[in-house]
Design goal:
With about 475 residues, this protein is of the alpha/beta class. The chain has twelve helices and 22 strands. The radius of gyration is 23 Å and the shape is globular. It starts with 8 loop residues before the first strand and ends in a 15-residue tail after the last helix.
Length: about 475
Amino acid sequence: MVQYLAVTVFTKLMPVGRLPDPSPAPPPRLPETPLYPLLRTITPVPIMTYPGFPFPPGTPLLTIHEDVECYHRDYTTRYGLWSHIKLNHTVVLSSWVGTQHAGHWDVTIEDVNGDEIRRSFDHLVVASGHSHAPHIPVFPGQDAWLENTSKEGRRREILHSLWYREPTHYTNQTVVVAGGGASGIDIASQLTLHARKVYHAVRTLKLPTTVPVEIKPQIAYFTPDEIVFADGTSVRDVDSVVLGTGYDRRISFLEKGGELLVKPGSNQADGNKLTTNLRYLFPLHKHIFSLSPSYPTNALAFIGLNELIPHAPSDIAQSIYATRVILNGSLLAPRKELLRQLAEHEEDLRQRGYDPYYIGHRMVDNSGFDYQDDLINTLRMKGALPKSEDNFVEAWRREASGYEFCVQRGWRRIEELGDEDEWTRGIETEEEWADLMRRINAWQRDWEMKHSLVFPGDDTYTIEY
């Protein structure tokens, strides 16, 4: 029997096609998006795709954000999803009305005119990403440092990357970029073309980098004239600090509805409510379904919380799992058993040297591929999907993860040579994109060996603690 769901998607995003606001309002008002005009992908586009839906022919392997937006628009059109999407509709509050066995979600939405609408839904899926609430550390002594003007008489600044837009804002400045993730590396790279000097303060670099900056340990504290790092070294005459320090796990409409408790740094659930310690939402089944006893185990789902994983294929695997469970809640074991499984998983992480309440939803040890396959195979074993010997994750995706960074370097060299069209000409299918990455990897590896170039940790992500 075919089952159908009536689905409505509310998103606060404005109609598609808008570029990032070049001059967002200053803090504390949050920009609509963390996108900045010069943002490019650092992941080769074939790895970023939804299964079976490659980027258009001729797309650069490392492309601009407008191409990524266009890709998602094309996907939405291809599968006829526009009629389900309400643009410029912001969910402002959501709360459960009922018991742990039955009820509904009471949802308040603010529309394009600022009017509030109330709707009821049987299930709630949160797929809003996690780049909304900037994590802004406060360092000892920073206020005294900010009060002093720089050597050139400039007003000093500490700004999170959420507000970053143009590297020209930092022309002839000395800048410290804090944070070793993708944003920190990309922004540091852009600033080197305009700033007088760039320091990159990190605990560990999450991605290999060839950016010409001076690497420093994490920031320890400020004095009125200096920024002091964890190793005791310091720098003077710094004009600006850009914080690439990530985002807190906050979901405002669940917090306002009393469905999500905020307990910074905690590793203890309330027992009755879903909890965020700002790094980790818990307790969740497979990073998807809330195990709060306030409602049924398939009432509240999350898509896309995971990190260190290509989001498009992972989101599809999670969506398939969530949809089948929403349609048939009996696919899940009783709540007590699901909590036991979660505790077992968290203990396994501890045995491997990770604090589950610190790493949060990161797919450590390159576990993202197994995670996706597990979701689909679990449904197959329960008869919710047809049996198949094929893995959900294609072999070429696993293969490409081993040389992703080499392909990045190779593509940048191809751009320097002006040979992009020659390499991408005729590339259309997933298999052809996968073969392109193999050829670029082999070509770049050969060049690096001839020039005795070595890039440690080239095939792994690390976690910045």
